[in-house]
Amino acid sequence: MVRATSRSSQHKVGEFSRFPQLTFNRQRILSTVSPTVFDCITESDCECRMFNYILHWALLGVLAISILHEIQAAVLSDDTELSSILLRLRFLASRLGSEPLEDWVKYETSGYPPGVDVPAYRIVAVSFKGTFSGPFNSGIQNAPIPPHLIEKYASESWTRHRVRESIAGVEELAKSETLGINASNLMLLLQGKIYPDWACNSISGEISVVAMKEIKQVVRSRVLDLTIELEKRVPEAAAVTLSKPIPKNAASEATVTQIFNQTILGNVTHITATDGAQVTLSISTGDIGSMTAALVKAGLPQEAAKEFSEIVAAEPPKSLDKPLGSKALAWIKKNGPKAAGGAWKIGSDVLTDVLTEAAMKFAGLKP
């Protein structure tokens, strides 16, 4: 209990003219506790004890504030840093029992380590310029290098940078005037391939500062979407406070994880195989690249994933009743034994479900 130093002057309990800000609080307290509690408040220590009681009940009020509503208020305030909002969300996630949500918040606040996939909103474009020298002292300064050539001779990871910094680091990067990456290794990979017979002297890679600001805005927006959906579909989430946990419920935990996948990660679907393993699909409507990448991640070889994606793009499903066309069905019949024989990393028991789900998500028939 906090103790305040009382003044030496004497005051009667009823004299609150000098403390008008205490009047409402005193009446509120008197309505919630026994009147005998205030028998001890007399004259000289009136101010001190009244302060202590008010502080006590104020603290109880703070402890009773819904963490979810507190997060929503913080998100809507321009003055609150994202790192502070995410700490509150991590506490809420722990109380709701959603490990995927906890992990996401942990990575956002501490950074994404190598080997951990970053969300799509953290993949940003990089533009490159190079300086080249040719015969007879000729040269080209700051010549733009087409992304296609970089992906052809190096890899896509150069043109699509994964931002692994913590959200606090992203906020600091967003304040910069320019952002660059170390492209010294890229210079070796592209030597003599951009301009034949010309030497590549230097390459610089630049990331737009706007991309960092967009990451901030996406995280803030998706946290708000998450809390809104939690409030609608998991009402008990709004009852979580600092002093009041909620009983663990498997159904609620599953719902929280589903909401997290939909609002934070975007268009994501989980498919469970007969052995309990989960296959995650994150596919944007009409995007062959995201479909190919999702199928490769699910266990298909790169060429097989690309081939099936092109087939689906050529004959997209038109309804949920017939999600796969004749060519897609023929492709599955032809390649199914490869999955069954263990040649692919995906099992035959889940192959058809994954491909069907991928086709429907590509066509926009499923969220």
Give a structural overview.
The structure is a single chain. This protein is an alpha+beta fold and 367 residues long. It is built from 15 helices and eight strands. The strands form three sheets. Strands 3-2-6-5 form a four-stranded antiparallel sheet. The protein has a two-stranded antiparallel ribbon with strand order 1-4. Strands 7-8 form a two-stranded antiparallel ribbon. Strand 2 (127-133) and strand 3 form a beta hairpin. Helix 8 packs antiparallel against helix 10 (209-233), helix 10 packs antiparallel against helix 11 and helix 12 (288-298) runs antiparallel to helix 15 (348-363). It is flat and about 75 Å long. It starts with 19 loop residues before the first helix and ends with a helix. Residues 1-46, 53-63 and 268-277 have low confidence and may be disordered.
